[in-house]
């Protein structure tokens, strides 16, 4: 079950900046919200873990230190990762000055993703908002000041141009999709770079920047994960599984699998068979 702290305010006065709600959540694997349209501006910031955010038919793969903006009346969906579900905080706000503030920060529905290395500062600001929960003038001023400070941190943190970030995410998403569709076919990194029409070194840079691993490591992990699924759920031969996952040589596959799981494919299958998870074809 999701563990969350949430604070909501009903004050809807016409002001330059107004905090509507805020909160913090530790989510379960694959916890999701949406697709839904919201009436407020909302910023989520990821404290730990991974997940996806979808808006305007785009999917962004996000992790610790990244955040995303939701603008009013935009259909969005977000979901935590199955293996590393995220913890995040959020603030919901309105106000006459919001469009100008977000423009200065560089955020919009077209370019909703940002990076921030001040995780602790953002966490304690939201924590302070949660502490000052009383419905009185003093607490209201305090929360508004904290909201200004939250936005000022995003404005001060070096942000790349939104167009560049969007373009980079496009390459990452297209590369991942290409791997999913062609991993079985013995593809190499230069095939992915050629498909994207970018230099191989630039592809490496993007993967290290956003996924903290090389495209070669991502491709190998994807193939070996698929291989482990086939070992667990079928009685296909090791050679067939090797070929099905893009390894032309079973010996190369076995060596890579042993490095990954610290055991051979046949031993892995025996363990799964002993636990009753191997199925017949």
From TrEMBL:
Superkingdom field: Bacteria
GO molecular function: DNA-binding transcription factor activity; sequence-specific DNA binding
UniProt entry keywords in alphabetical sequence: DNA-binding, Transcription, Transcription regulation
SMART domains documented for this protein: HTH_ARAC (SM00342)
Segments forming domain HTH araC/xylS-type: 173-271
Biological source species: Anaerostipes hadrus
Protein name: HTH araC/xylS-type domain-containing protein
Matching CDD domains: cupin_MmsR-like_N
Signal peptide: none
């Amino acid at each position: 079950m999701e563990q969350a702290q949430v604070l909501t305010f009903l004050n809807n006065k016409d002001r330059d900046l107004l905090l509507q709600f805020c909160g913090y959540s530790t989510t379960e694997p694959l916890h999701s919200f949406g697709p839904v349209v919201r009436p407020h501006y909302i910023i989520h910031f990821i404290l730990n873990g991974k997940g996806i955010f979808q808006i305007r038919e785009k999917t962004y793969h996000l992790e610790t230190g990244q955040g995303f903006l939701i603008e009013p009346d935009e259909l969005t969906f977000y979901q935590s990762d199955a293996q590393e579900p995220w913890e995040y905080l959020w603030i919901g706000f309105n106000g006459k000055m919001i469009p100008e503030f977000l423009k200065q920060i560089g955020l919009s529905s077209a370019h909703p993703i940002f990076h921030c290395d001040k995780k602790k500062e953002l966490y304690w600001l939201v924590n302070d908002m949660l502490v000052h929960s009383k419905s009185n003038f003093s607490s209201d001023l305090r929360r508004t000041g904290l909201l200004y400070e939250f936005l000022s941190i995003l404005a001060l943190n070096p942000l790349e141009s939104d167009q560049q970030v969007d373009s980079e995410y496009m390459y990452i998403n297209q590369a991942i999709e290409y791997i999913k569709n062609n991993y079985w076919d013995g593809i190499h990194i230069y095939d992915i770079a050629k498909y994207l029409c970018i230099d191989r070194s630039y592809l490496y840079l993007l993967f290290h920047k956003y996924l903290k691993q090389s495209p070669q490591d991502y491709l190998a992990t994807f193939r070996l994960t698929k291989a482990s699924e086939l070992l667990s759920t079928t009685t296909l031969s090791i050679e067939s599984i090797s070929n099905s996952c893009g390894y032309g040589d079973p010996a190369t596959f076995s060596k890579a699998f042993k490095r990954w799981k610290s055991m051979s494919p046949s031993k892995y299958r025996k363990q799964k068979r002993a636990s009753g998870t191997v199925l017949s074809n």
